[in-house]
Amino acid sequence: xxxxxxxxxxxxxxxxxxxxFLFTLTFLQNKKEIFEIPEIKKNFSLSVLIPAYNxxxxxxxTVESVLNSDYKDIIEIIIINDGSNDKTLKIAKELEKRYRxxxxxxxxxxxxxxxxxxxIKIAKGELIAVVxxxxxxxxxxxxxxxxxxxxxxxxxxxxxVLVKNKDSFIRVLQGVEYKLIAFTRKLLGFLDAxxxxxGPLALYKKSALEHIDGFDTKNMTEDIEATWxxxxxxxxxxxxxxxxxxxxxPNTFKKWFKQRIRWNIGGIQTILKYKHLFxxxxxxxxxxxxxxSISLLLGIFGIGIFSYRIFRxxxxxxxxxxxxxxxxxAILTLQDINLNPSVLNFFGVVLFVLxxxxxxxxxxxxxxxxxxxxxFFSVIFYSIIYIxxxxxxxxxxxYKFMRGKYSWR
Length: 409
Prior knowledge:
globular, 8-stranded mixed β-sheet, Spore Coat Polysaccharide Biosynthesis Protein SpsA, Chain A
């Protein structure tokens, strides 16, 4: 059993170091293109879709941030009221009266994916922008994304998603997380391996969305599923690292936990839907599916190894102490004190240090051209405490998924 755990531990370490070095080499090879903004050679007409459910506090700001965009070919902004029971519809109607480009689609509650699908049917633009109703694109965000569609077979473009209003510690930690995700997503773009176009802001070719019959209404993460579907059909996904959108992150542990459960369950649903493409169908089967699946497995193995070692050490200590008391011998001797680090501990420390260095570098790249800077304590707390919660959330997600007891909200 001990040998098996050791082998699993080394496999865990190897895979983790492999991806760490892969990202590092990818950056070194493409560092001059990180902030690249392709020239816009054609002014694509653009429809902006904003699905909204009980977003009375943010919908006005979201619409006005889109209207403030410097991209001049936004022909319409469609607010889809998904059966809200607050003042969302009232505010949306006020915006419709005030701004010529704003339209309101009012419908019964049926979920975000169905809301988007209904809006796609009436949208007039060549491109479709999806903007969550609690997100705020910067003025240059959309114009910095459109140029990527001149590349052949590009079906969608994503951007940097950052946390707005970091007014609580849980949001500060998510701010660190979102920046790391943004940097690694850009690197994945160089490998043709972007696996999600997040809801706060994503641009799609309308024809591409029609080709895949829109968003999957049964999936908890319609943005992940749509991305995989597009890639499976031969479309490419690109990311504009120069553009940014700020989104309202959960401000309590309970909301954060529920959001992450949904993300994990949606990821599991997507893996199962496309499992037949493992090691097939281009980058989806040969990299995205394995990468995404291994990331989940690493979380399970990580907590499994950690739990086993803690339990084993506790059990051995308890039995040794009990035996020493029973035999009236010394509980602790100098021979029991081992100050020599094991190979496993050595590699664990190396992985942690390299991961921390990569995180600091990622934050430096994302913060480039801004005055923002993370506190050292927040980064360390994120690296030691926050990340350790991932495996527990994954296990809870698997439990809920197997029981079939989960919902979007």
